[in-house]
């Protein structure tokens, strides 16, 4: 306040120009003792308020950037964790279920001790991640495959050696109820803006990360398959019959392509920032890259 007083004292027009010192008009001593006028106080208040509001804008903007950055890094960490579970063959919470193949040739789960790992008919293949545009959740589905090769509903009686030989299904009960689905809510109000696969057009909002079988061409450094599903996701497709059918490799998901990069474009809660999480399938394994940029 002392600095504002000094500035105002020098800027105020001279009320008594006949009393000067070194050519500078002075105010009457009584007016110095009287303090600021009402108008001067309002000026000080306006200046102080503008400084405060400007500081608040800067602070809030920085907090928004920090919050969105943290949300994206948490998302990246979660995706890495799910991919790591596939690599290690870990299937959390599956110990209370057994698996068998139904009449259509697809794996189904039933409550029972032992776990899927003890099944002679099924194997834990991996996880599929669904990212619905304009939605603030990701849905992570365990995907199970048949150990034997199948042609439709017909068991060929030989061990499957490749992804195209097996029947697959999300973890469901015999009645088609989805089981063991993880739901991840993006932090700080963020939401999925869109998804894409490098080199392909269209919506690929469902991606699968699966263990490569012997003839799938896996390597010592990368034993995973990355499959893109041409499913147009809306909130109506979450845990739906259409999604189940797609994960069972029925049309339009009968012909699946391997992808080298799956991009998730995410928008901040205030809509002012975007970032891209790229999940890359390389010879060295699955890697991720986080870029804070405008989604093209």
Describe this structure in words.
This protein is an alpha+beta fold and 296 residues long. It is built from 4 helices and 17 strands. The protein has helices spanning 2-11, 29-34, 38-88, 241-247, and strands at 20-21, 24-25, 97-101, 107-111, 122-131, 137-146, 148-151, 154-159, 168-170, 182-185, 191-197, 206-211, 224-229, 257-258, 261-267, 274-282, 285-291. It is elongated.
Low-confidence stretches: 13-24, 26-33
Mean of residue pLDDT values? 83
In terms of structural class, how would the helical and strand content be classed? alpha+beta
Task: Based on Cα principal axes, name the global outline.
Answer: elongated
Sheet having the most strands? 7 strands, antiparallel
- Total of DSSP H or I helical runs spanning 4+ residues: 4
The helicity comes to 25-40%
The span between the termini is: 50 Å
Provide the succession of SSEs: HEEHHEEEEEEEEEEEHEEEE
Task: Please give the radius of gyration in angstroms.
Answer: 32 Å
Q: DSSP strand (E) fraction? A: 25-35%
Number of strands: 17
